[in-house]
């Protein structure tokens, strides 16, 4: 004779099993409905036109392609870096219509007709942007991987402060916002430097802010 089975039904197990069964049933119903109506999926690719660094570029991309991958893989603009690919490190920062974004979190098809600026459009070694020159002067980079995103953000940080856009550390919202170390650090907190060159980055941004005041 077989020994009795020691079995107990717990509330968590019951709920998990019920949810899984409901999900499976919904998927099956959806598939059956699509087959019965003859519904088909939409196109998998889309052709978009981007103005990249002042040049109009047309490309056909998979609808799931991020703006970051469109820049790097389709347009070969590899200055914009892929770091975490989850919007947490800032290495992929570029600007769209004048606003900085994490390009790894944005689909390319969302930006048809938009103006995109990457690090390649800011300056070249023989003619650097003031922020690029300041990063070089203050050694604001070590491995350099995060530097394009740091520079893109740094330039916009100064613009945002002067436009009166407050941050979490802004005190008096009725007064002109000063370009302080605290403001810069807070606004640059989304750009991670794994080499730890934060003090040098701060010095570079402060210099550019003072020279352009």
UniProtKB/TrEMBL annotation:
A Pfam family: Fer2_2
Residue span(s) of domain 2Fe-2S ferredoxin-type: 46-122
Residue intervals passing through the bilayer: none
Coiled coil: none
Matching InterPro entries: 2Fe-2S-bd (IPR002888), 2Fe-2S-bd_dom_sf (IPR036884), 2Fe-2S_ferredoxin-like_sf (IPR036010), 2Fe-2S_ferredoxin-type (IPR001041), 2Fe2S_fd_BS (IPR006058), Aldehyde_Oxdr_Iron-Sulfur (IPR052914), Beta-grasp_dom_sf (IPR012675), TAT_signal (IPR006311)
Record's keyword terms, sorted: 2Fe-2S, Iron, Iron-sulfur, Metal-binding, Oxidoreductase
MF (Gene Ontology): 2 iron, 2 sulfur cluster binding; metal ion binding; oxidoreductase activity, acting on the aldehyde or oxo group of donors
GO terms under cellular component: periplasmic space
PROSITE patterns, alphabetized: 2FE2S_FER_1, 2FE2S_FER_2, TAT
UniProt-listed CDD domains: fer2 (cd00207)
Protein name as it appears in the record: Probable oxidoreductase
Organism: Salipiger bermudensis (strain DSM 26914 / JCM 13377 / KCTC 12554 / HTCC2601) (Pelagibaca bermudensis)
């Amino acid at each position: 004779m077989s020994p009795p089975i020691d079995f107990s039904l717990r509330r968590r197990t019951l709920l998990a099993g019920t949810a899984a069964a409901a999900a499976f049933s919904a998927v099956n119903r959806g598939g059956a409905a699509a087959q019965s109506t003859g519904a088909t999926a939409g196109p998998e690719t889309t052709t978009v036109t981007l103005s990249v660094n002042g040049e109009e570029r047309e490309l056909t991309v998979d609808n799931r392609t991020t703006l970051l991958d469109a820049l790097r893989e389709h347009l070969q603009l590899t200055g914009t870096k892929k770091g975490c690919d989850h919007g947490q490190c800032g290495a992929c920062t570029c600007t769209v219509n004048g606003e900085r974004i994490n390009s790894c979190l944005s689909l390319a098809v969302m930006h048809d007709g938009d103006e995109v600026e990457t690090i390649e459009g800011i300056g070249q070694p023989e003619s650097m942007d003031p922020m690029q020159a300041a990063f070089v002067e203050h050694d604001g980079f070590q491995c350099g991987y995060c530097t394009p995103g740091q520079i893109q953000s740094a330039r916009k940080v100064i613009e945002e402060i002067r436009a009166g856009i407050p941050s979490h550390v802004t005190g008096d919202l009725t007064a002109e916002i000063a370009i302080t170390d605290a403001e810069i650090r807070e606004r640059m907190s989304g750009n991670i430097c794994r080499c730890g060159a934060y003090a040098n980055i701060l010095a570079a941004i402060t210099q550019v802010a003072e020279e352009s005041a």
